[in-house]
Amino acid sequence: MRLNMKAWLRSATMGVALSVATSGMAWSETLAETLVSAYEHSGLLDQNRALLRAADEDAAQILAALRPILNYSADVTRTFGRTRNGLGTSGIASQDVNIGISLELLLFDGGQTRFQLESTKESVLATREALRSVEQQVLLRAVAAFQDVRRNQEFVSLRNNNLQLLRQELRAAQDRFEVGEVTRTDVAQAEARLAAARSEFAAAQGDLAQAVEEFRAAVGRRPGALQPPRQLPNLSGDVDASAQIAVRSHPDILRAQREVSAAELNVLAADAAKKPRANLVGTLGAGEEIGGDDFSRTGSFGVQVTGPIYQGGLISSLKRQAMAQRDASRGNLHEVRHRIVQDVGNAYAILRASQAQRAATREQVRAAEIAFRGVREEATLGARTTLDVLDAEQELLDARASMISAEADVVTAAYSVLASLGQLTAKDLNLDVQLYDPAAYYNLVKDAPVPISPQGKKLDRVLRALGKD
Question: How many whole angstroms separate alpha carbon 270 and alpha carbon 262?
Answer without folding.
Answer: 12
